[in-house]
Amino acid sequence: MYDTYSQLLVPIIDRLESFLEDDMNIDVVNDESKIINSEHITLKENTVLIGTGGSVQLIIAMGFDDTVLEKLVDEFCYGEIYEGEELIEIQESVACEVSNTVIGNAIKNPIDDSVINITPPILIHEAKSLAKYKNSMILETEIKTVDGDIQLTVIGPKDVFSNKLNLKEL
Amino acid sequence: MLNVLVVDDALVIRKNITRFLTELGHKVVADAKSGSEAVNICKDINGIDLITMDITMPEMNGIEATKLIKEILPDISIIMVTSHGQEELVSQSLKAGAKNFVLKPITKEKLEQTIGTLFPDYAKENDDELLDE
Looking at the 3D structure of chain A, how many domains does it have? Predict the structure, then answer.
């Protein structure tokens, strides 16, 4: 079953890269993103969590460096400048919309192509450390861009992964 | 010109859709950040021709809101806004009374095309105006 998770993550990485380059004018630097099976991860300060439901249930986290989030806000707002509380709300909604659009565009069950529903995005502001515990599994990768990095993490129950953890290279 | 209600929980999306619609010559008469707010606006404001409705929202989602709004305004046109993985939800939305949907990321061109399918006379009018210019 590990392949299911790998196959879920790969289309999200692909869609994130095409979204950044084609829709947001952000150049992706690395073209060899590796998916890593982590014991623990530290989430970035601006991280969006989206849960999946239906045939595959897991949590997907997308974390943004401040610099790349600033660039995304610029692109989303067509250069319009916001300040104070409105700027904070705009930053939050941009992070959530990027995550929602990329994950929503990309995700489907690779086995039977069935639709996987996604929950509304939740933004957490302060970096949190997540550690693997008992029957959990954490897969992560990082997309590097000229404007900063985006961390992509999938957290799910271990019993749906096989022992084939020789992780797939893109 | 169409009178439009924009419904989305994300401020940046409400702003962008408003920007695109204005550039396309339409008037955004109100916006709402939840389905329940949209339902109340539909009770209070007359003359809305079109609603752009996000599907995934807290409090009341776009599908529930569409059902309720269609009870109040059976003839109103509703365009659902969604990301691609939610096709099942799109299907539910169409059953609830939505007329069409537009996939995220939203662009002016996508909105124009989708509105054109619902209001072909309006789209033709616009084309004629452009030809005249």
Answer: 1
The tens-digit pLDDT sequence of chain B (133 residues) is: 999 999 999 999 999 999 999 999 999 999 999 999 999 999 999 999 999 999 888 888 899 999 999 999 999 999 999 886 566 777 888 999 999 999 899 999 999 999 999 998 776 566 666 556 5
> Residue B20, Cβ neighbours under 10 Å: how many?
21
Please check whether residue A75 is in contact with residue A69, taking contact to mean a CB–CB distance below 8 angstroms: no
What is the total count of domains within chain B? 1
Tell me if chain B has a CB within 8 Å of the CB of A120.
Answer: yes
Q: Is A117 on the interface with B (CB under 8 A)?
A: yes
Residue B127 · residue B115 · CB < 8 Å: no
If contacts are CB pairs under 8 Å, which of residues 21-80 in chain B contact chain A? 56-58
Boundaries of domain holding A137: 2-160
A49: domain CATH number?
Answer: 3.40.1550.10
Which of A93, A117, A118 comes nearest B13 by C-beta? A93
ipTM field? 0.81
- Residue-number span of the structural domain to which B123 is assigned: 3-132
